[in-house]
C-alpha cells in the first residue's frame, strides 16, 4: 500500500493507493497544501480516482474541490452534505475501489469513515484518545454515540486508526486500543456519553465562519482572493517607492485606499486618497488618465493588492501595489505627512 500523511498543524490529510495498481484516493486535503499534495501524488506515481472529504470541515479550508478540478477526478462526500460540486455522494456500506464507506454522523451530519483492509480513516468522528466534538453546526452527541459504539468500535480491533486531527502527535493506535484506553469512550451508557459531550467546554475554531462559508458553498477564502489578485499584478518595494517619492519626478502617483482618518493621520507624501469602498465609483474622477502609473497602498499590504487588481481590471494597466503597508512604512522611518489640523 502507498500511504502518505500530510500534516497542517493538527489537521491530517491522506494519500492512499494500491501498491500494485497505484489506483488511489486523496482524503481531507487542506487548501494550503495543494501543491505539496500534488507533488506527493506525482512522486509516488499515484493515479488518483477520487478526492474525498470525510465531512464538512469547520476548522480549516478544504482543497477537495480544487484538487478534484486539477486532477480531473470526481469529488466525493456523504449524501447529506450541502456542498455544491460534489460528483459522487455516498452512503453507508457503499464501496469505492476496495474502500468501504461508513456513515458516521455526530461530529457533523455528513460525516463518513473509510475502511481499508488494515486501517480506518475516521475523519473527526473518532480521534486518538478522544472523539470529535458535537457542538458545531449539525453536530449531535446522540448520533455520535451510535456511530462510535454501533459502528466504529464494532470493526476489527486490529485496524489502525487514522483520524482527521492529531493535535498532540499521538502515535498510531488500533480500534482495540481505543476501546480499551480512550477516556471519552469510558462512558458506555448512552445518556452518560451524551451528557459528557454536552458538558465539554471547548473553544471555537479559528476562522469558523469563513471555513463553513467556503466549505459549504464552494466560495473562495480571503487568502484565495489575495493569492489570485497577487498573481495578476506587480508590486513595488518600499525602498523603490521611497526613492521615487524623494526624487519628486511626478511620474508615479501614490493612491492611499485607507479610511479618511488613517490617511489624515499619516500618509506617504503626495499620496492621493480614495477609500477602498468607493474606489470603483470615484476612480474616474480621481484618475481620469488610465495610462497613469499608480501604486496603491493600505495599512498592511493586503487590501492594496485587491485594489491594484481591481484597477487593472478597470483598464489602469500600470497599477501596482506597494509590497508592504503603511504600518511597515512608518516602522521603517520613511517620510510621512499629515493633513490633521493641530489644535
Q: What does this molecule look like?
A:
The N and C termini lie far apart (75 Å). The chain contains twelve helices and 19 strands. With 343 residues, the chain is α/β, with parallel strands linked by helices. The mean pLDDT is 95. It folds into two domains: 216 residues, Metallo-beta-lactamase, Chain A (4-Layer Sandwich); 109 residues, Rhodanese-like domain (Oxidized Rhodanese, domain 1), CATH 3.40.250.10. The relative contact order is 0.09. Helix 7 packs across helix 11. It is elongated, with a radius of gyration of 26 Å. It has a six-stranded mixed β-sheet, with helices on one face. Strands 7-8-9-10-13-14 form a six-stranded mixed β-sheet. Strands 15-19-18-16-17 form a five-stranded parallel β-sheet.
Summarize this structure as a short list of keywords or feature phrases:
six-stranded mixed β-sheet; Oxidized Rhodanese, domain 1; 12 helices; alpha/beta; elongated; 343 residues; 2 domains; Metallo-beta-lactamase, Chain A
Question: What's the alpha carbon Rg, rounded to whole Å?
Answer: 26 Å
The CATH superfamily title of the largest domain: Ribonuclease Z/Hydroxyacylglutathione hydrolase-like
Beta strands, count: 19
- Cross-sheet strand order for the largest sheet: 1-2-3-4-5-6
Amino acid at each position: 500500500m502507498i500511504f502518505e500523511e500530510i500534516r497542517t498543524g493538527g489537521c491530517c490529510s491522506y494519500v492512499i493507493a494500491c501498491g500494485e495498481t497505484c489506483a488511489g484516493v486523496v482524503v481531507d486535503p487542506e487548501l494550503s497544501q495543494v501543491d505539496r499534495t500534488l507533488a506527493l501524488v506525482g512522486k509516488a506515481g499515484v493515479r488518483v480516482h477520487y478526492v474525498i472529504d470525510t465531512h464538512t470541515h469547520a476548522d480549516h479550508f478544504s482543497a477537495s474541490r480544487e484538487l478534484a478540478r486539477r486532477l480531473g477526478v470526481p469529488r466525493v462526500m456523504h449524501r447529506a452534505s450541502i456542498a455544491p460540486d460534489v460528483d459522487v455522494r455516498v452512503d453507508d456500506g457503499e464501496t469505492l475501489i476496495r474502500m468501504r464507506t461508513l456513515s458516521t454522523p455526530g461530529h457533523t451530519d455528513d460525516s463518513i469513515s473509510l475502511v481499508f483492509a488494515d486501517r480506518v480513516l475516521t475523519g473527526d468522528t473518532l480521534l486518538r484518545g478522544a472523539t470529535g466534538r458535537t457542538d458545531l453546526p449539525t453536530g449531535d452527541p446522540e448520533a455520535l454515540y451510535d456511530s462510535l459504539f454501533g459502528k466504529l468500535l464494532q470493526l476489527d480491533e486490529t485496524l489502525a486508526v487514522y483520524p482527521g486531527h492529531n493535535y498532540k502527535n499521538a502515535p498510531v493506535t488500533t480500534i482495540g486500543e481505543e476501546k480499551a484506553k480512550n477516556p471519552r469512550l469510558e462512558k458506555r451508557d448512552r445518556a452518560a456519553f451524551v451528557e459528557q459531550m454536552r458538558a465539554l467546554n471547548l473553544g471555537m475554531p479559528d476562522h469558523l465562519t469563513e471555513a463553513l462559508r467556503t466549505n459549504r458553498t464552494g466560495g473562495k477564502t480571503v487568502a484565495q482572493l489575495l493569492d489570485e489578485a497577487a498573481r495578476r499584478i506587480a508590486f513595488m518595494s518600499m525602498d523603490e517607492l521611497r526613492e521615487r517619492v524623494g526624487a519628486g519626478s511626478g511620474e508615479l502617483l501614490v493612491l492611499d485606499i485607507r479610511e479618511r482618518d488613517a490617511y489624515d493621520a499619516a500618509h506617504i507624501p503626495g499620496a492621493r486618497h480614495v477609500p477602498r469602498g468607493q474606489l470603483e465609483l470615484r476612480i474616474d474622477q480621481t484618475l481620469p488618465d488610465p495610462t497613469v502609473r499608480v501604486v496603491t497602498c493600505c495599512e498592511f499590504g493586503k487590501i492594496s493588492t485587491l485594489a491594484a487588481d481591481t484597477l487593472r481590471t478597470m483598464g489602469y494597466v500600470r497599477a501596482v501595489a506597494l509590497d508592504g503597508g503603511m504600518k511597515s512604512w512608518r516602522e521603517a522611518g520613511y517620510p510621512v505627512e499629515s493633513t490633521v489640523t493641530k489644535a
